[in-house]
Automatic annotation (TrEMBL):
Keywords annotated in UniProt: Metal-binding, Oxidoreductase, Zinc
Record's protein name: Zinc-type alcohol dehydrogenase-like protein
GO MF: oxidoreductase activity; zinc ion binding
Pfam families: ADH_N, ADH_zinc_N_2
TM regions (residue ranges): none
High-level lineage: Bacteria, Pseudomonadati, Pseudomonadota, Betaproteobacteria, Neisseriales
Amino acid sequence: MRAVALTQYLPINHPEALFDIELPKPAAPQGRDLLVRISAIAVNPVDYKVRAPKDKVESSPRILGWDAVGIVEAVGSDCRLFQPGDRVYYAGDITRPGCNAEYQLVDERIVGRAPASLDDAQAAALPLTAITAWEALFDRLAIHRDGSAAGKTLLIIGGAGGVGSIAIQLAKLAGLRVVATASRPESADWCRALGADVVIEHGAALLAAAKAHGPYPYIFCTSDTDSYFAAMSELVAPQGKIVTIVEASQPHPIELLKAKSASLHWEMMFTRSMFQTEDMQAQHALLNEVAALIDAGQLRTTLGEVLGTINAANLRRAHAQLEAGRTIGKLVLAGF
């Protein structure tokens, strides 16, 4: 099968950072695994973070990629959610080979039925960010989807990125007032089009700008926990909640949250698959619900740009664009 892989962890401008390769097709699926024939993929910050330069060499080619749409070709003997021919979408498991290949094995419990109203590229933009935003809002921040939080304000730091783009929409469906940050006029317009009530600048201007629109019982940081921890601690409301998806590179004074009895939560959408949690199948359910909301016209795809077919040159281009930090929505590659 055709695939894009790495053996060394190199700067993205190096021609061997990602390269085209022919590899054996995965073996027949066992247990609850599906064998999926990939038709489109999306690229996320996790891709370039995993690929980031380091002193390590793989003994065999490693395939990255954690966003895919495809057709189920075969199912394991214990599968009960899908059958061959089903069109699916998923983010996969970071501990297993990724989706930058023609075929992939993936556990059915973290796979959903792809939205029928979207083409492959549009659907590929959704799984990882939809799972992340859903879990951050409804599991970590404990926002109720029944409208009981209606009118409360959510601050989303990084509203125009992949996660922020779907988080804005999900928050509006729950009745929240959304204040989102953006750095450029075009990204601010994107946030407003998705439903943000207020758009403010991030960076050094965020604290002063955000104070005018609080209080914030909920804060969702999708960008640079290190830079925004102090501001979030000041902005969060008493008994409020902060969730972040970006690792910190330095210690932070969590005692800033004590007087407010505020809480800090981490969200990593790979947790369930990495640890094979008892509720792992919750990701199957939420992906199906997201697909239903898409098909009902209540959510829209967050596709920003299709960069061409699935090959090493286009994947290197996608990694470079994400590393530059100026992407609106999701970057997708479709077909081989």
